[in-house]
Specification:
Elements: H1 2-10, E1 13-16, E2 22-24, H2 30-39, H3 54-59, H4 84-109, H5 122-125, H6 129-180, E3 182-186, E4 189-193, E5 208-213, E6 230-233, E7 241-250, E8 259-263, H7 276-303, E9 311-313, E10 316-319, E11 325-334, H8 336-341, H9 355-370, H10 394-401, H11 406-433, E12 438-443, E13 452-459, E14 471-476, E15 481-484, E16 490-493, H12 497-523, E17 526-531, E18 546-551, E19 558-564, E20 568-576, E21 598-604, H13 614-625
Antiparallel strand pairs: 1-2, 3-4, 4-5, 5-6, 7-8, 7-11, 9-10, 10-11, 12-13, 13-14, 14-15, 15-16, 17-18, 18-19, 19-20, 20-21
Helix pairs in contact: 9-11, 11-12, 12-13
Subcellular location: Nucleus
Biased composition (Basic and acidic residues): 55-66
Protein name: Mediator of RNA polymerase II transcription subunit 17
Length: 629
């Protein structure tokens, strides 16, 4: 309403109809209004009118002079075309510019006209140097102030960009950290978890680390290649490196130390693309794992009841699996400062490292400790979920749920490793000491944690195909060795080394007699008697002596062989009576037919015979006593 009233005041009424409706004159457009205003400008007004002072200007607004009452003056008549005055003034300006151009062209040749400077008062033209310096100083100060303001704005903008880039890099690095480690925000801090509580660990150490922003470096300078905007702060007791050292030592001087194993020992080698915080967190978690495992082993060492109590002293657990054998488990923890002050600890020799024990212990600890254990799970056997008379009672369920501790499993593995190494050393010593017969050991590549098997073959060189009677299968357990013969007989040996050595010596002694038996069958000789345990003759301290008697195809000659583990081999040959030189005369035997019987035995010196081994010598002897066809 107010707007329509305002328009009515400005616009002029053109017509009023009979019904009282007013028609207004339409408003001029911007171009029409500009043309109307241009008609009111007097471009012919001279510059002298400016000297009349402000009074004339106030009397003559818009350049339109007031009409005078003189008779001789003519009133201003606007032309019919609105831009006529503008055209006239542009024409006059063009005329003046053409004149100026002609004058400048004449002055350029300097033939007809020249320019002279206009002399002025030197007092007015010469400005003192002091005022010039002051003005220049003010100008320079103004320029410097502008430059400083611009530099401040640029510095603020650069700082904001750097802070944004630093925050962006920190967030991206934090995202990588969160994808690999558990993080949570507590107040204004970002905390992480190094413990194995999510895998069922009950170790009381909190294992908390803090994530902080790395602000030590100046981004204005050159950023190093290993720069990381994120840093982690771990507890002081988890700094450095740690590992568990397991060593098996023999107190007697004949064997000495068996070897050492370093579990969870990490070398500080940075992988390409890995950050420093990742290496630091892995080392700290490894220290925490070693401490937790050693605490569990120490607790079990105190709780386990054994004939020889386990000793726990500081960071070392000492146990004796066998008499004269010592198992030592130590926690070795070194920080960065101590490592820099002293040299690295002495490394175990490659021959002194127990790779099998290391693999088994790693597998055992990973299975028992670090694998995730659910809070609840169903029982495996169906009878555990049944009720009634067919269900298990409390004693049976408790017996099923009983399991060995980690320390007991480590001790059992150490016993097995010791017994296996002792068996291998015994077989190797016999093979190197005794050349005839030969003993060979074939170890199985597929073994369990607490049991290994080795196949022992006792052969003679050159007669491997006919002398296959002695084949032994040794199953090495934790505290005993089970020997399975070729015929299925089973003998159980203890962990004592002397028992295994005596048993192998007796088997090697029996092999010589069995070889003579197989050779006699091949040569066509007849076996008259054979015994693995001879009751006559000197008593052997190791096992029993074995003997065999064979006769030639014609029956004229006989060979008797007696072999004992300690007494050695003794060979006797029986010739016919008619070939005997010094045959004692008998009054009872008068008939000539009894002269074809075999006479007394004569001992053969095997050491003087030609041949590379005992079986080859017996082959030559049988061939010599066999008559030609």
């Amino acid at each position: 309403m107010a707007k329509s009233c305002f328009l009515q005041l400005i616009a002029q009424v053109q017509e009023v109809s009979l019904d009282g409706l007013e028609t207004y004159v339409p408003l001029l457009s911007m171009s029409q209004n500009l043309a109307k205003l241009a008609q009111r400008i007097d471009f012919n007004q001279s510059s002298d009118s400016d000297e009349d002072g402000p009074e004339r200007e106030s009397r003559e607004p818009w350049g339109k002079p007031e009409p005078e009452e003189d008779e001789g003056t003519v009133k201003f008549q606007p032309s019919l075309w609105p831009w006529d005055s503008v055209r006239n003034n542009l024409r006059s300006a063009l005329t003046e510019m053409c004149v100026l151009h002609d004058v400048l062209s004449v002055l350029k040749d300097k033939k007809y006209m020249a320019l002279d400077p206009v002399s002025q008062d030197p007092a007015l033209t010469k400005t003192p140097q002091v005022f010039q310096l002051i003005s220049k100083k003010k100008s320079l100060a103004t320029a410097a102030q502008l430059l400083l303001k611009g530099a401040e704005k640029l510095t603020k903008s650069l700082a904001e960009n750097q802070e944004q880039r630093r925050q962006r890099d920190f967030n991206s690095e934090l995202l990588r950290l969160r994808s690999q480690w558990k993080l949570r925000k507590v107040g204004h801090k970002i905390l992480g978890d190094l413990s194995y509580r999510s895998a069922g660990s009950l170790f009381p150490h909190h294992g908390t680390f803090e994530v902080i922003k790395n602000t030590d470096i100046d981004l204005d300078k050159k950023v190093p290649d290993d720069y990381c905007p994120l840093n982690v702060q771990i507890p002081s007791d988890l700094e450095g490196s740690a590992y568990i050292k397991v060593s098996i030592q023999k107190q007697s001087a004949d064997i000495g130390d068996l070897g050492t194993v370093s579990l969870f020992r990490r070398q500080p080698k940075a992988k390409p693309g890995s950050q420093m915080w990742h290496l630091k967190l892995e080392a700290a978690q490894n220290v925490l794992l070693c401490k937790e495992i050693f605490a569990q082993l120490s607790r079990e060492a105190v709780q386990i009841k054994s004939q020889i109590p386990h000793i726990v002293v500081k960071n070392q657990i000492i146990s004796q699996p066998f008499p004269g054998l010592q198992l030592s488990i130590s926690l070795c923890h070194s920080t960065g400062e101590k490592k820099s002050q002293r040299a690295s600890p002495d490394k175990s020799k490659p021959d002194d490292h127990l790779y099998v024990l290391e693999h088994n212990l790693h597998q055992l600890i990973r299975e028992v400790h670090t694998m995730p254990h659910p809070a609840s799970s169903p029982f495996g056997h169906k009878r555990l979920r049944l009720a009634g008379p067919m269900a298990y009672d409390k004693a049976e369920i408790s017996s099923l749920q009983q399991s060995e501790g980690l320390l007991e499993k480590i001790i059992k593995q150490a016993k097995h490793i010791f017994l296996r190494s002792r068996t291998a050393r015994t077989i190797d010593s016999l093979a190197s000491r005794i050349e005839d017969p030969q003993i060979q050991a074939h170890w199985s590549n597929i073994n369990s944690v607490y049991e290994s098997s080795v196949k022992v073959l006792i052969t003679s060189q050159g007669y491997e195909q006919i002398c296959k009677s002695i084949q032994l299968q040794l199953n090495i357990g934790v505290e005993q060795i089970r020997v399975v013969h070729r015929d299925g007989r089973v003998i159980t040996l203890s962990h004592q080394e002397q028992e295994l050595q005596d048993f192998l010596l007796s088997q090697m002694s029996q092999h010589q007699v069995h070889a003579v038996q197989q050779l006699a069958k091949v040569m066509g000789w007849h076996v008259l008697s054979f015994s693995n345990h001879v009751g006559l003759g000197p008593i052997e301290s190791i096992g029993n002596a074995s003997a065999i008697t064979v006769a030639s195809p014609s029956g004229e000659h006989a060979i008797s062989v007696r072999n004992g583990p300690e007494s050695g081999c003794k060979v006797l040959v029986q010739f016919p009576r008619n070939q005997a030189k010094e045959l004692p005369k008998s009054d009872a035997v008068q008939d000539a037919r009894w002269t074809h019987l075999r006479g007394p035995y004569r001992e053969v010196h095997c050491g003087r015979m030609e041949g590379r081994n005992f079986v080859y010598k017996m082959e030559l002897l049988m061939a010599a006593l066999t008559p030609c066809p």
